[in-house]
Write a structure and sequence with these properties.
Layout: E1 6-13, H1 16-26, E2 30-37, E3 40-49, E4 58-63, E5 76-84, H2 87-100, E6 108-110, E7 113-119, E8 125-130, E9 156-164, H3 167-177, E10 181-186, E11 196-200, E12 209-214, E13 228-235, H4 238-250, E14 259-260, E15 264-270, E16 276-284, H5 309-314
Parallel strand pairs: 1-4, 5-8, 9-12, 13-16
Antiparallel strand pairs: 1-13, 2-3, 3-4, 5-9, 6-7, 7-8, 10-11, 11-12, 14-15, 15-16
Amino acid sequence: MELKGIHHVSAITAIAKNNYDFYTRVLGMRLVKKSVNQDDTSMYHLFYADEIGNPGTDLTFFEIIRAGHTYEGNNSISLTSLRVANDAALQYWKERFVELNIDHQEIMEQFNRKVLYFRDPEGQRLMLVSDETNNGVEAGTPWNKSPIPQDKGITGLGPVKLTVPDPIPTVKVLTETMGFRHVGNYPSLLTDQPAIEVYETGEGGTGAEIHIEHRKDLPKERPGRGSVHHVAFRVENQEELVKWKERIQKLRMPNSGLVDRYYFQSLYFREPNGILFELATDGPGFATDEEVKHLGETVALPPFFEDRREEIEAKLKPLNTKR
C-alpha cells in the first residue's frame, strides 16, 4: 500500500474557452477529456495532460462561470508545478513567456533543481520544474501534435505545495497515514519565513512530492478563479483503493467512501488543515470511451449520465475543441 505519486490536480476557471486556449495553445498540453463535474453537471470539467492522459500528467479545471477573485492565503494548495525534461526546456519557456507577455519570474535553483514560476491569466500559481537531475517517478510523453516542440513540452505534474498555519497535523497524516517520507527542505522565497519542507512517496522525485509551507502570518484563503480545489494521489488499482478506504475508516477520518468517476475510482478526505485530498486509481483511463486520436473533441459523459445527455449539454456553453 504505497501511493505512487501525484495523480492529478483540479483547479477552478471562470471561462472555459480562455482556459482551453491558454493550456493548449500557450502551454501546449493536450485536452484529453471534455466532460462535466459529476457533482454538478452544469459545469465543464476539462482535463489537460500528456499524449494520452497518463496518470500523473493531468491538470484539470472546473468551470465556475461566476467564480470571483482568489484571496490567497493559508489552508490552501498554493502552487502546482509542471515537469519539463531539462534545463534547456526551461530556457525555451522563459523566452516564450517573454514573447507572449506571460507573468513570470526568473529561472532559479530550488531543492537542487532549476524552476520557473509563472501564472496563467486568472492568476493560477504555477511553476515549471526541470527534470535534468531528477530520479524518481517516470514522466509522461508530450503530445506530438502540440504547438510546443516535443522535447520542450510539459511531461506531467511536479511537486504540489500546501500552505498551512500549523504543519504538524498535516505532516502526521502525510507520514503516518499516507506513507510519505521527509527528504529535505529549501529556503522560502520570503526571507522571514521558515524553510519549505519536502515529503515524497513511491519512487520519489518531482512526480511524487508534496511541499509544506508554514505561514502563521496569513488569513485563510478565499478560493475563486485561479485557485486549486484538490490534489489527487495515485493508487495502483481498485483492490488497493479498498484497502485505503479501510485504513482511513479505521482511523475514523471522515471520507467519501469509494466514488466511481468512470475514468478512475476515487476516495476523498480532508487533512486536518482542511485541504481536500483524493486517492485515485491509475485506470481504466481516458481512452475508455473515446479513440485516442479524438480525445477531448466532444463532450464525454460516463454511462450513468448518458440518458441525461440532452439535458446536460443544453446547460453548457458550446466549446469548440475539435482539432
